[in-house]
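Tokens as discussed.
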């Protein structure tokens, strides 16, 4: 009998990831607090559950894709939490981006209960989640990773074993701190050029083939209309929310403090995203909307 997989958290990222598990032929049970989020999965063949614990206790492998550390703690060790609900030997894979300490604490508690737990945050955005080309940054034991690998392969293209429990989160936080810095920098450069009368598409093509080239100029341009299939060209809807980027930059700041590391650009980016997120509905818009902090409207 093939394994049953439980997937909890069907938001911007979790839904396409779960759909890719279904497409690969896996038997899937899903749960999200938002019943709407489960409908598409149900239509695609997943079984819908009544709680995280209910679907997880019947599964051999459990994936979670939740917003922040407090949600992860609640789902794993809150009332009716996964740690108490699942059978010994179950592999728990948390793909959310959260603080490394929470991942380590949960992995330690899981091990005491005879469970295997990985932190496996992802990079690649909603585009990568839909295409099944995510990068997984994994922290935890080899044995757990080898059990999870066939399922990670169905959702991603690159799987990196960063180290022990929590190491995946550290790698992810470093990556996203750089992403926040490069997105703010790209928006700043584009706004400067446009203020001088340059066409943002022309300036973007120049920078994409020059030494200012980066992920934003190549794949995720923040200026509306420069690229067809990015959040900037659909009023910054979908994608990676400004509020989530602000959370990740806060995680990077906390991580820096804990090791007395200097991260001046990361802190500056955190402040820019905090100012941006505080205005109107910006926290829910894609993070490339940071451009609006710089853009001069004439
Ligand atoms: P999201 O807010 O779109 O989705 C989160 C989902 O979790 C929602 O559907 C919500 O209803 C559900 N949820 C919350 N609490 C729950 C609970 N107790 N039980 C069941 N479901 C619950 O967030 P997202 O954009 O999918 O991001 C998820 C994680 O992935 C975050 O940690 C984020 O930082 C990270 N991430 C996001 C992106 C991106 O581009 N969106 C890229 C890489 C990593």
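Sequence:
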């Amino acid at each position: 009998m093939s394994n049953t997989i439980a997937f909890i958290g069907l938001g911007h990222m979790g839904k396409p990831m779960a759909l890719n598990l279904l497409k690969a032929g896996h038997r899937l049970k899903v749960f999200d607090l938002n019943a709407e989020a489960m409908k598409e999965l149900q239509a695609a063949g997943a079984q819908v559950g009544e709680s995280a614990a209910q679907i997880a206790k019947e599964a051999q492998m459990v994936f979670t894709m939740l917003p922040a550390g407090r949600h992860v703690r609640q789902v794993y060790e809150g009332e009716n939490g996964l740690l108490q609900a699942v059978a010994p030997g179950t592999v728990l894979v948390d793909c959310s981006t959260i603080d490394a300490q929470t991942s380590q604490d949960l992995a330690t508690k899981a091990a005491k209960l005879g469970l295997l737990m990985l932190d496996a945050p992802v990079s690649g955005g909603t585009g990568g989640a839909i295409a099944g080309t995510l990068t997984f940054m994994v922290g935890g034991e080899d044995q757990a990773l080898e059990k999870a690998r066939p399922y990670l392969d169905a959702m991603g293209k690159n799987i990196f074993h960063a180290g022990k429990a929590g190491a995946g989160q550290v790698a992810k936080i470093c990556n996203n701190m750089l992403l926040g810095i490069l997105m703010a920098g790209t928006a700043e450069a584009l706004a400067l050029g446009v203020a001088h009368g340059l066409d943002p598409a022309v300036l973007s093509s120049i920078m994409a083939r020059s030494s200012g080239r980066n992920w934003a100029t190549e794949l995720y341009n923040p200026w509306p209309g420069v690229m067809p299939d990015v959040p900037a060209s659909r009023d910054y809807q979908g994608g990676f929310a400004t509020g989530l980027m602000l959370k990740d930059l806060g995680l990077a700041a906390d991580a820096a403090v804990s090791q007395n590391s200097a991260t001046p650009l990361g802190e500056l980016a955190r402040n820019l995203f905090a100012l941006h997120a505080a205005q109107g509905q910006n926290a829910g818009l894609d993070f490339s909307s940071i451009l609006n902090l710089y853009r001069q409207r004439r």
